[in-house]
Amino acid sequence: MKRMCFIVLALASMFLMVGIVHAGNLNINGSTTVLPIAQKVAEAYMKENPDVKISVSGGGSGNGIKSLIDGTTDIADSSRFIKDAEAKLAVEKGRYPVPFAVAYDCIVPVVHPSNSVKNLTLDQLKAIYMGKVKNWKEVGGPDLKIVVVSRDTSSGTYEVWESKVMNKERVYPGALLQASNGAVVQAVSKNKNAIGYIGLGYVDKSVKPLTANGIQGSAKTTLDGSYPISRALYMFTNGWPKEDTLNFINYVLHPQKGQQYVEEAGFVPLY
C-alpha cells in the first residue's frame, strides 16, 4: 500500500505538465483485465484527438511487459506489478519501465448460476484449486464434482490469485486453463460444476459471484481494503512518457475523463 500511495501521489505532478501536441500512433498491449479500460479510454481519446491512432490488444500481463521490454509496444497493460526479473531484463536492454496505477480491481470467484454455494473462505478456495476438495458437497454445495477453471501462467490475474489465495502453491494440473477473463466467464457459464475467478469488471448475469471470507467484492470493499483479493491495475511506459504517450496517460488519469471510463468498464476509479 505504501508503494501504491507513492505511485498515485507522484502522478499528481503529471497534471502540472503540458503534453506536446503530436500526431501519431500508439500501441497498447497486455492484460485482458485492463483491456476493457484501455479500449474505452482509447476510443474516447481518439474522438477528441482524431490525428492519433491507438491499437489496443490483450494477451496477458506478462506478454504486455515483454512487449515493452522488446520495444514492440508503447504502453504495457498489467494487472500486477512488474517482477524484479522483468525489471532487471528491461534495464539490461536499456529500457526503464515506469508504472502508473490507473484503477483498482478485485478478483471475484464465480460459479454457475445454478450452484447453491454463496461463500468460500480463502482456505476453501485454496483447497479447491490445489485439487484437495473435489466435490461441491464438501463446501456446502450440491453433490457434483468440481471443475476448476484457472488462468494461464502469463496472466497477472493468475499471479495475484497465486499470491493472495494459493500462498505460492501451484494450481493442480487438472485445472482447465483459460487465456482471458472472458474465456473464464464463458467456461463457467456453460458448466454447472465449474468454478473460476475473474476481474470485477467481467462479472455479469451469466455467472454467480461468490463472497470471499464472507465479504463481497465491490468498489467499496476494494478501496477500504476489506476484500481479501484486491489489487491495483497498471499501465507501464518505457521511461517517463512523452508526446502522445504522455497525453494518453494524462487522459487515463484525469478524474473527469479517463477515470469515468474506468467506472463504466466496471472497475474502481482511483478517486
Question: What are the main properties of this structure?
Answer:
single chain, 10 helices, nine-stranded mixed sheet, disordered N terminus, 11 strands, D-Maltodextrin-Binding Protein, domain 2, 271 residues
Layout: helices, strands, pairs:
Layout: H1 2-11, E1 25-30, H2 35-48, E2 53-57, H3 61-70, E3 75-78, H4 84-92, E4 97-111, E5 119-120, H5 122-130, E6 147-151, H6 156-164, E7 176-178, H7 181-189, E8 194-199, E9 208-209, E10 211-212, H8 219-223, E11 230-238, H9 243-253, H10 258-264
Parallel strand pairs: 1-2, 1-3, 5-10, 6-7, 6-8
Antiparallel strand pairs: 3-11, 4-8, 4-9, 4-11
Explained architecture:
Helix 2 packs across helix 10 (258-264). It is built from 10 helices and 11 strands. The chain is globular and about 60 Å long. The chain starts with a helix and ends in a 7-residue tail after the last helix. The protein is α/β, with parallel strands linked by helices.
- The tally of helices reads 10
CATH C-level category of the largest domain = Alpha Beta
What is the count of distinct domains? 2
Identify the CATH architecture of the largest domain: 3-Layer(aba) Sandwich
Sheet/helix structural class: alpha/beta
Low-confidence stretches: 1-22
**Under CATH, the topology of the largest domain is which?**
D-Maltodextrin-Binding Protein, domain 2
CATH homologous superfamily identity of the largest domain: Periplasmic binding protein-like II
Number of strands: 11
Summarize model confidence as the mean pLDDT.
91
Strand content: 15-25%
Order of helices and strands: HEHEHEHEEHEHEHEEEHEHH
Q: Distance between the terminal alpha carbons, to the nearest Å?
A: 15 Å
Question: Which descriptor suits the 3D outline?
Answer: globular
